Amino acid sequence: MLANLSTQLFEHKSVTTTVTKAKRLRPYAERLITFAKRGDLSSRRRVQAAIASRNRTNKSVVHELFTNIAPAMAEREGGYTRITKIGNRKGDNAPMAVIELVLEPVSPKQAVVKEATKAAETSAPVAEPEVAETEAPAEATEASDDK
Predict the structure, then answer these.
(1) CA-to-CA distance for 1 and 66, rounded, in angstroms?
(2) How many CB atoms lie within 10 A of CB 9?
(3) How confident is the model over 116-133, as pLDDT tens digits?
């Protein structure tokens, strides 16, 4: 079920399904996109195996994922999908949602904040302060004051 939903998601860029299925699909699809961002042969084979390798049409979906979707997600470090609740289905009143790929570029504000935090981490290594040996004699003087 997840393989079919993820195939449809990559092919059509959005899928309308129940909220439960959308929540189950999100980590599965995001993991496949993360593999696709690596771009090596091993990752391509893992994605192909996850999407049911026996079907010829799925090879075109894997190609679409590696050539179009993964480069669009290169700047993004996660959160490749978005779930939007759209109300209940008419027949059985099941809660419905649209799960879609987030293809918009990362906003410049978020990119600047991430670069600043990375620069701060690499430029200033944290040195551990040395512990002074004065604590032990202080305890000894307290013990002598009690006598």
Answers:
(1) 22
(2) 26
(3) 777 777 776 555 656 555
β-sheet with 95-101: strand ranges across: 14-18, 95-101, 81-88
Residues of the chain above pLDDT 70, percent: 76
Q: Extract the tokens encoding 141.
A: 């003087």
Domains of the chain: 2-105 (3.90.1030.10)
Looking at residue 20, its pLDDT comes to 96
Spatial distance between the Cα atoms of 5 and 3, rounded to a whole number of angstroms: 6
Q: How remote is the C-alpha of 140 from its chain's centroid?
A: 54
Rounded CA gap, 118 and 116, in Å?
A: 5
Q: Where are the alpha helices (DSSP H) in the chain?
A: 2-12, 19-38, 41-50, 57-64, 70-72, 108-123, 135-146
